[in-house]
Amino acid sequence: MQHREVRKSNRQSNAGLLLVFVVVLIIVVACSARSVSLYHKSKELSVTQAQLEQQLEDANNRAAELEEREKYMKTKKYIEDEAKNKLGLVNSDEILIKPKEDDD
User: Fold this and answer.
1) Rounded distance between C-alpha atoms, residue 68 and residue 99, angstroms
2) Does the CA dihedral 81-82-88-91 come out positive or negative?
3) Residue 3, SS3?
Protein backbone atom coordinates (compact mmCIF):
# COMPACT_ATOMS: atom_id res chain seq x y z
CA MET A 1 0.00 0.00 0.00
CA GLN A 2 2.84 2.35 0.70
CA HIS A 3 4.24 1.61 -2.71
CA ARG A 4 0.99 2.77 -4.35
CA GLU A 5 0.88 5.94 -2.26
CA VAL A 6 4.46 6.78 -3.25
CA ARG A 7 3.62 6.28 -6.93
CA LYS A 8 0.47 8.35 -6.64
CA SER A 9 2.32 11.08 -4.76
CA ASN A 10 5.13 10.93 -7.33
CA ARG A 11 2.62 11.30 -10.19
CA GLN A 12 0.93 14.21 -8.50
CA SER A 13 4.30 15.82 -7.92
CA ASN A 14 5.25 15.35 -11.59
CA ALA A 15 1.87 16.70 -12.72
CA GLY A 16 2.28 19.68 -10.42
CA LEU A 17 5.76 20.39 -11.75
CA LEU A 18 4.51 20.08 -15.31
CA LEU A 19 1.67 22.49 -14.57
CA VAL A 20 4.07 25.00 -12.99
CA PHE A 21 6.42 24.66 -15.98
CA VAL A 22 3.57 25.28 -18.44
CA VAL A 23 2.38 28.35 -16.51
CA VAL A 24 5.91 29.75 -16.33
CA LEU A 25 6.39 29.06 -20.05
CA ILE A 26 3.14 30.88 -20.89
CA ILE A 27 4.22 33.87 -18.78
CA VAL A 28 7.65 33.96 -20.46
CA VAL A 29 6.09 33.82 -23.94
CA ALA A 30 3.59 36.55 -23.08
CA CYS A 31 6.33 38.77 -21.65
CA SER A 32 8.52 38.18 -24.69
CA ALA A 33 5.68 39.06 -27.07
CA ARG A 34 4.96 42.23 -25.10
CA SER A 35 8.64 43.10 -25.06
CA VAL A 36 8.87 42.81 -28.85
CA SER A 37 5.74 44.90 -29.23
CA LEU A 38 7.15 47.60 -26.94
CA TYR A 39 10.46 47.55 -28.81
CA HIS A 40 8.71 48.22 -32.12
CA LYS A 41 6.60 50.94 -30.53
CA SER A 42 9.77 52.51 -29.13
CA LYS A 43 11.35 52.56 -32.61
CA GLU A 44 8.23 54.20 -34.07
CA LEU A 45 8.20 56.82 -31.32
CA SER A 46 11.90 57.54 -31.89
CA VAL A 47 11.22 58.21 -35.58
CA THR A 48 8.25 60.42 -34.69
CA GLN A 49 10.36 62.31 -32.14
CA ALA A 50 13.08 62.94 -34.73
CA GLN A 51 10.49 64.24 -37.20
CA LEU A 52 8.93 66.52 -34.60
CA GLU A 53 12.33 67.86 -33.57
CA GLN A 54 13.08 68.66 -37.23
CA GLN A 55 9.72 70.41 -37.58
CA LEU A 56 10.44 72.41 -34.43
CA GLU A 57 13.83 73.45 -35.78
CA ASP A 58 12.25 74.46 -39.10
CA ALA A 59 9.58 76.45 -37.29
CA ASN A 60 12.21 78.21 -35.17
CA ASN A 61 14.21 79.07 -38.30
CA ARG A 62 11.06 80.38 -40.00
CA ALA A 63 10.24 82.48 -36.93
CA ALA A 64 13.74 83.99 -36.99
CA GLU A 65 13.38 84.77 -40.70
CA LEU A 66 10.02 86.43 -40.07
CA GLU A 67 11.48 88.53 -37.26
CA GLU A 68 14.27 89.70 -39.57
CA ARG A 69 11.72 90.50 -42.28
CA GLU A 70 9.61 92.41 -39.77
CA LYS A 71 12.64 94.49 -38.74
CA TYR A 72 13.41 95.19 -42.42
CA MET A 73 9.80 96.18 -43.10
CA LYS A 74 10.06 98.86 -40.41
CA THR A 75 13.01 100.54 -42.13
CA LYS A 76 12.98 103.46 -44.54
CA LYS A 77 14.82 101.33 -47.11
CA TYR A 78 11.87 98.91 -47.29
CA ILE A 79 9.40 101.75 -47.85
CA GLU A 80 11.58 103.18 -50.63
CA ASP A 81 12.01 99.78 -52.29
CA GLU A 82 8.27 99.12 -52.23
CA ALA A 83 7.49 102.58 -53.59
CA LYS A 84 9.94 102.02 -56.43
CA ASN A 85 8.82 98.50 -57.26
CA LYS A 86 5.06 98.76 -56.87
CA LEU A 87 4.33 102.40 -57.53
CA GLY A 88 7.20 103.32 -59.85
CA LEU A 89 8.18 106.29 -57.70
CA VAL A 90 11.70 107.71 -57.58
CA ASN A 91 13.55 110.04 -55.26
CA SER A 92 13.84 113.67 -56.31
CA ASP A 93 17.59 113.32 -56.91
CA GLU A 94 17.23 110.19 -59.12
CA ILE A 95 16.74 110.03 -62.85
CA LEU A 96 14.49 107.31 -64.20
CA ILE A 97 15.62 105.75 -67.48
CA LYS A 98 13.19 103.45 -69.17
CA PRO A 99 14.10 101.26 -72.13
CA LYS A 100 12.46 102.17 -75.42
CA GLU A 101 9.62 99.86 -76.36
CA ASP A 102 9.78 98.29 -79.80
CA ASP A 103 6.60 98.55 -81.93
CA ASP A 104 7.37 95.62 -84.25
Assistant:
1) 35
2) negative
3) helix
